[in-house]
Amino acid sequence: MMVHNHEVVIIGAGLAGTRAALEAAKVADVAVLSKIFPSRSHSGAAQGGMAAALGNLDDDNWEYHMFDTVKGSDYLGDQDAAEILAKEAPEVIYEMEHMGAPFSRTPEGKIAQRKFGGHTLNFGEKPALRACYSADYTGHILLHTLFEQCIKQGVRFYSEYQVVHLIVKDDICRGVVAWDIRNGGLQVFRAKAVMFASGGYGRAYRITTNAHANTGDGLDLALRAGLPLEDMEFVQFHPTGIYRNGILMTEGARGEGAYLLNKDGERFMKRYAPTLMELAPRDLTARAIQTEINEGRGCQTPEQKAQGIPGDFVDLDLSHVSEAKLRAVLPQIFDLARNFAGVNVAKEPTPIQPTAHYSMGGLPVNVDGQFIRDAKNTPVRGLYAAGECACVSVHGANRLGCNSTQDATLNGRRTGRTIARDVPHLSWEDVPAEDVKAAEKDLDWYYQANGSENVADLRTRLQDTMMVNCGIYRNEKDLKTQLGIIKELQGRGKKIGVKDKSKCFNSEVMEAMELGHLLNFSEVIVIGAIERQESRGAHARTDFPTRDDAKWLKHTLAYQEPDGRIRLDYKPVTITRFQPKERKY
Ligand SMILES: Cc1cc2nc3c(=O)[nH]c(=O)nc-3n(C[C@H](O)[C@H](O)[C@H](O)COP(=O)(O)OP(=O)(O)OC[C@H]3O[C@@H](n4cnc5c(N)ncnc54)[C@H](O)[C@@H]3O)c2cc1C
């Protein structure tokens, strides 16, 4: 098997991976592996903005940003991490600007900023103008800027390489095994430092904003290597996905003044968040929409009306905002609403429903990006993570909009610096033959699979049932049903058939592997959700409707035992400035 040696191997070429690569490449030989072309990474889909208390248009400061992030997290976020995010964010923005990112501007030429959910001035008084943006293509411009800088810096990209195995032995990470998607076959990437920047997992749900590639591979690779996942029960639903397909209508739309209306034309958010209205945090807003729908106040399609069926969406209305302004600051949502909902946003409302969007949980890391293997915060030598796949934990139980592009870029930068610091002290370790054999055996299994089960059927069943049983509102009965379904699907997953035996671009094998990942980490989401008997942030239990700080102000750590069983452990939340309070908006 071909063996590559790179001092640093980064899995993922989104904002986190490319930003880290730029730092690490200052001192080391860096390779970035990506299963899709780098600039196709999901970061490029980010629309609305990137948070930083620049105060270009109001009296913003980092303490307000930190407070909002902590309160938004329902006090589960680690406050040392939130403080770093809020303090370093302005520098990260200016650095992106100096690298060439074309941000939208104020008339006097400063970086323009807009409102976003849960971001306030003076500790909750009124909405802050904090999201820096480039129209509604913010992720696209950030990702292209970083990719170009990486090329300039000599970072080596392995495009269309899917990492299939993480090599950890004696608590030391030694590299990865990757599948060359274009030509077939496995290759070993030996490294002194390995970093996960492999993104989120929205594809475990039927209605999602996430790209097809977002299948949480990194999470499962770590789990299979005996490493823990943190706070996986917290899954963010974005309030405004286009009805029936989940494609995102950015929160920037509400930042620019959009209303949420029920079937009576009522701005119902006044009953849920009287101060912030449509700019309340996502967990609260998504629940408000779902409650309107559940209680019969959802909007109806003409067919639903004719048949007397209750409506299952609400309206996002921008028709009171001037068309010239909309075309200038939200051009993409014009196209999305027209193409996917047949709507002209300047004239009529867009039907929307909550859509699976972001994973608050993930690979446990400390504030320097080192992978943590237990509740005592013991780092794994040579292993790091940042971005959506990681759990620092900045976002706790609920992430605020525009904090993720900032988290990925800022913690990507921090992690890259940690790697640059550590690499001179790390050594080349042997790659155990058993790891290589295990990866080969796995791949062979997929090529030889000739059972009767169909990958797409199993995936659809998982996605549909995760929506219903482990979505916005949860309860013990549904979650236990879902655990049973996942077990059944895991069993059926052992009997799949793969017809395509070709080496080149075998998307059938790829999807089969991704299904394995989806099924494995979804079990962790559901078990964490069953155990957490409280409601906090995005985890809303109808059978335990209140937050329970006495029992549950702690992070979940989940391990997969060698026999496949999931074992849970817990670790304390870091609280520095802000004691947990009741959350009102
Ligand atoms: C539609 C949409 C809009 C958003 N808008 C905003 C916004 O306006 N503001 C905001 O702050 N946040 C936004 N977010 C969230 C934010 O964009 C993401 O959380 C963030 O960009 C993730 O960056 P990342 O670098 O961690 O991962 P990603 O950009 O998702 O990159 C993941 C990388 O990992 C690679 N990868 C994965 N698995 C493997 C494997 N097995 N082998 C090799 N490579 C692998 C992929 O190829 C990819 O390069 C949005 C998200 C979505 C879906």
Any overview of this molecule?
With 585 residues, the protein is α/β, with parallel strands linked by helices. The chain is 35% helix and 21% strand. The protein contains 16 helices and 24 strands. The strands form 7 sheets. It has a 6-stranded mixed beta sheet, covered by helices on one side. Strand 9 and strand 10 form a beta hairpin. Helix 1 packs parallel to helix 4, helix 1 runs parallel beside helix 11 and helix 3 crosses helix 11. The longest helix has 25 residues, at 507-531. The termini are far apart. Bound molecules: flavin-adenine dinucleotide (FAD).
Task: List its salient traits.
585 residues, alpha/beta, six-stranded mixed β-sheet, four-stranded mixed β-sheet, 24 strands, binds flavin-adenine dinucleotide
